[in-house]
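seq:
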Amino acid sequence: MRYSIAIVLVAFTLAGCAESKREAALRVWHSPDATLEQRAHAASVLVPKGADLETVTSLLGTNGGWAHYYGPTIGAAHTPPRQLPDTDIWCFLYSFPGGGVQLYFDPQTAFGDRFDRAEPGRRFTIPDTKRP
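struct:
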């Protein structure tokens, strides 16, 4: 019986010393060395699904802003070719070197009011095609 109590006490002590998922995610979110993928995963851990924008900014900071992606649908291959609806998506964007973390809300076609997911986003670069 004494050994059981000792084992339980050791287990509780060790559990209290472990870093929580939330603390680890906050550390990654604020780390200057974190990749966009790591930051997006951290945002998904920190922000509960269905949270409103006020909750998001209280957890991740107020340095984000709404981004609007509108235009023809790109990369859709259909046989036979057919007309697809234009892309019309809003997301809340946090910018970092090399890209950003895009937070999507439901519905996506307006300033959504319920957090859905976080994804990394890379900046597009256009190669220089000028010849000497």
